[in-house]
Amino acid sequence: MTEIPRDQWYVAAYSSEIGHELFARTICGEPILFWRTRSGPVTAVPDRCVHRRFPLSQAPSRLVDDQVVCGYHGFTYASDGKCVAVPGQSRIPRTARLLPYPLVEQDSFVWVFIGDPARADASLVPRAPYLDSPVHATVAGMEPLRARFSLLVDNLLDLSHETYLHGGYIGTPEVAATPITTEVDDEAGIVYVSRHMDDTECPPFYARSTGLQGRITRWQDIEYTPPCLYILHSRVAPVGSVPNPDGTDPDAFHVEVVYAITPETENSTHDFWAVARDFALEDQEVSTFLAESNRTVVLQDVAALDVLERVIAAEPDGYQELSINIDTGGLAARRMLQSMARAPQAASTPS
Ligand code: FES
Ligand SMILES: [Fe+2]
User: Contact 146/306 with Cβ under 8 angstroms?
Assistant: First the structure.
C-alpha cells in the first residue's frame, strides 16, 4: 500500500464550503474542525476536545463569536486553539490547548498542512490559478471515494481508461490507441504525462460545450504535483490547428481539469474536481452541461475504484500487478509518493 505522505499540504475544502459555522472533515486520518473567523481567515484545530475527546463539531458544541464551546462540559477555545474557559474553576490547565493547523487559502481551495507544523512552508502550496481567474469559467464538486488515494492517482495518470470507462462522455477509441510521453521533474516534484491526438473523434463532452463539429486535434497534458494536486491541460481544436509561435491559440478551446486528491483515511479519499474553461464564459447552459457530464465521469471512476478497493483489500497478502506502457506515469507518481512517505522519518533520524 502506498503510505499517505505526511508533512505535506492537502486540499481540505473549497473556500466556499467554509463560512462562519463549524465544519468538520477528516484529512489523512485526522478529524479537523474548521470555521471562518469574523475577520475573514479560516481557522482549523483538531475536532476533539482536550477534556474527554468530545467532537467539537458535534451538537450541542457550538460557535459563539469566534470561540467554540464544547457541547459536553463547556471547555471553550479561541480561534488559535487556546482554551479560554473551563467549567467550575478559574485556573485553566496549561496543557488545555488545541494545536492549530497551518492553512493557506488560495485558488478557491483551503489547503491544510498535515504533519509537523514547524515544517509548513506556505510557498510550497502548488497553484491552480484557473479556478479563481476572470478569464475562466469554472464548475466544481467533490465526491467521496471509498478507496485509497493511490488508486485515484493511478486512475488520473492513465487516461487510456477513458475509452472504456467513460465511452460516450470523454472516451473515444483514439485515447487508448495513442501512446503517451512521460517526464519526471524530480527537483520540482512534478510528473508530466502527455498524449497528443492529431486527428480524432470529438467526444460529446467537448462537442456540446465547444460546438466543434467533426474530427478534432485533442491534446491531454497532465501535470501532477504529488501528493494532492493534479491538472489536466486539455486542448481541443479543429484538425491541423496548432498554437502560434507567440503562444496565442485562437482556434483552440482550453479546459483545465483540476483534481485535488486528498486522503480521508487509509481507505477513503476526498475526490475534489473542477473544470475551468476559457470559452463561453457567460453561457450557463455550457456550465450546467460540463458540471453534469464531469460529475457523471467522476462517479464512473468512483464506482470502479470502490470495487477495486474491495478487491484489493480482500488480498491482504499482496498481489502481482502487470504494468505496461500506459502505466509509466502512474508508476513515476508512485515512486515520488513513496519517497515522500519516507522523507519525514529520514529527516528525524539522528545522523
Ligand atoms: S469533553 Fe469537552 S468539555 Fe468535556
Ligand atoms: Fe476516469
Answer: yes
